[in-house]
Design goal:
This protein has eleven helices and 13 strands. The chain is an alpha+beta fold and about 450 residues long.
């Protein structure tokens, strides 16, 4: 350094040191940016792989539900539709699995299982298309594949929990490469999938709205009657529906122009409390309330589901609705959402006539209401007398189902159609199912699996 100083003047020396300092600062800045970009990229990878993993879990959940239904069907048409869906879900699961950064040894048996499910379901679907039902040997194979899917789901749920807790980070695994994860830790993805493979030496989306809620997608509102009303009439309908003693100002904030045209209204609670609003839509034809949502927070639970159901029934009776029976319910955030369906004097269930009522469990107030399905369904049904006897319809149901009860029920079909059916409720392998047999021609129209937990009753 002394020699270096001797060869440079003081001014030159300071300039060199400034340049070196600047280079050091730039180097540190560049290094930090590189590190930050790498962390952002790792986060991006983690989110991408996490999404692909969740999609794979959903695929396997769908496979499990579909195989459950296959085991209780007795119709080549239904079996063909279900097995075709299984085949597609297996392909989707295999594709999502292949995108994850896991070594080939860990993937092989799981991928093989998905391939077997897909190939076998495709084979059965082709046989069904030729009007041939499964043989006993094929049914036993379906039974085995179904039990494997349950074990696979259990392992996937454990992995999903580890992912959510940060014990598994796909982004970090990706840096090591897909095929060279030889010394992974006990919590690593590779080891988790390896354990899953040792087991082997998937909502449909969950439907809360009611068993057939997805059948009503478009078409004409057949239950909408009455003359066209103006805004003032709509405001009066909303005030009566909400209770004139409970609301202050009501104003129009929008105009709905979907399948059902509405006045979009907003109400402020009486007393000027503007910390929450009540939104309500009134149909321009007939002045029916299409839906209502009270946005207030429900902070405590004081009522049981039975007490909430009583409150909901009293509310519907006050609003002038006819005979209804409670169908399904779901508990969430100190509220209970219940569905009600129509019923004739003879006891025929009318699933298209569906209403939803949401009750706050702190004081029993109705804080939500939806009549879309009810207004879309026809009300002047004729000829609800079955051509088939109950015994004839029962003969169409698989003997594997342990039947507990039978009712006549009108259900919606694709294409805005309806059918009078026999609803057979039964058990198979400790699972609850509804099987619907057309009361006119004996066709198996639908199969639903009932899921019960502490939050309510759902169908799949």
């Amino acid at each position: 350094m002394k020699l270096f100083k001797m060869q440079l003047s003081r001014e030159q020396y300071h300039k060199v040191m400034v340049v070196l300092a600047a280079m050091l600062i730039l180097s540190v800045f560049f290094g930090y940016n590189t590190w930050k970009e790498r962390k952002q990229y790792q986060t991006f990878l983690q989110n991408t792989y996490q999404r692909e993993f969740r999609e794979m879990v959903t695929d396997v959940e769908n496979i499990k539900v579909l195989l459950d239904k296959v085991e209780v069907t007795n119709s080549t048409v239904q079996s063909n539709a279900l097995m075709t869906q299984v085949w597609r879900q297996a392909l989707s699961a295999a594709e999502n699995l292949g995108q994850l950064p896991i070594s080939h040894s860990a993937l092989s048996k799981t991928a093989k299982y998905l391939s077997q499910v897909g190939d076998f379901s495709y084979t059965i679907a082709k046989e069904n298309a030729a009007n041939k039902m499964m043989s006993e040997e094929e049914f036993n194979q379906i039974d085995k594949l179904n039990s494997y899917s349950g074990k696979l789901l259990s392992e996937l749920y454990d992995m999903e929990k580890d992912v959510s807790q940060g014990k598994i980070r796909f982004g970090e695994m990706r840096k090591k490469g897909k095929l060279i994860l030889k010394r992974a830790s006990e919590n690593a993805v590779d080891v988790k999938f390896g354990k899953m493979d040792q087991t082997y030496t998937n909502y449909p989306v969950l439907i809360y709205d009611g068993p057939f809620s997805e059948n009503v997608i478009g078409g004409k509102a057949k239950g909408l009657d009455g003359e066209r009303i103006n805004k003032e009439k709509a405001l009066a309908v909303a005030r009566k529906f909400l209770g004139a003693d409970k609301v202050g100002e009501i104003k129009q904030v929008s105009s709905g122009s979907g399948v059902i045209h509405t006045y979009g209204l907003q109400a402020i609670p009486k007393g000027g409390e503007e910390d929450y609003q009540i939104n309500i839509d009134v149909t321009k034809t007939g002045g029916h309330v299409l839906w209502m949502l009270n946005s207030r927070d429900v902070l405590e639970k004081n009522l049981s589901n039975e007490e909430a159901a009583k409150k909901a029934k009293e509310f519907l009776k006050k609003q002038g609705f006819g005979e209804l029976v409670e169908s399904y319910y779901l508990n969430e955030d100190n509220t209970t959402m219940m569905t009600f369906i129509g019923v004739t004097k003879e006891g025929v269930l009318l699933y298209p006539d569906l209403l939803k009522v949401k009750v706050a469990l702190d004081n029993g107030e109705v804080v939500g209401f939806d009549s879309y399905h009810y207004l879309m369904a026809p009300k002047n049904r004729k000829n609800l007398t079955p051509k088939l006897t109950e015994a004839q319809a029962k003969a169409k149901v698989t003997q594997r189902l342990e039947i507990e009860r039978v009712k006549l029920a009108v259900i919606p079909l694709p294409g805005n159609r309806e059918a009078l059916t026999y609803e057979f409720k039964g058990k198979y392998k400790n699972n609850d199912f509804f099987v619907y047999i057309n009361a006119e021609n004996g066709n198996e129209e639908n199969i639903l699996q009932i899921i019960k937990d502490e939050n309510g009753t759902l169908t799949q």
